[in-house]
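Subject: sequence -> structure tokens, single chain

Hey, anyone have a minute? Need the predicted structure for the following. Not urgent.
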Amino acid sequence: MKGAQQQQVLFSHLIKAAARRACSMLALPHEAARLRSPADDGMTAIERLELSPLAEDQLVATALRLSPSAAPAKAIADALQRHFTTPPGWLAVEAQRRAAWSDLAGRGLPLERAAQTAAGIEKQLNGGEAEMPAKLRAYADLYSDLWCDPRIAAPAPARREMLALVSVLHGRSASLEGKEKTS
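Reply:
Had a minute. Here:
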């Protein structure tokens, strides 16, 4: 399976998983309101998910925003799929890039945090060692599209870490491929 196909399969899998997670979060009647209500820290549960650099959390937050109340996982997955079917406009993508890059000179990319996040992603992946480089590359490719995607509501710091994940995941994939070749 080639890179674009692997990324599409991964994205489809993540959409279904996000829909199931959103469905369970919205299962009780009062949960939709609670997820949208600010907590003591002034943030909603959806906004907290949007602070995460993980694609899974970003998709769950988007699913929750698209689903005003309880719905079957299939309906939520369909809504997410429709949401991501139409490509974003280049101007909106450029605005997200500029927002994420705005403080890059001062702080740089959070490569250390991204390395920790990438290690967590790698631990969650199933499969043998031979499959791991391709899976990590698929995640890196997904993040290369998602970090500047205006269809998610991630703030600039989360987007910077997502951008850093592209490099870290590609590096980890290349490192594992190098180990395979020397074995």
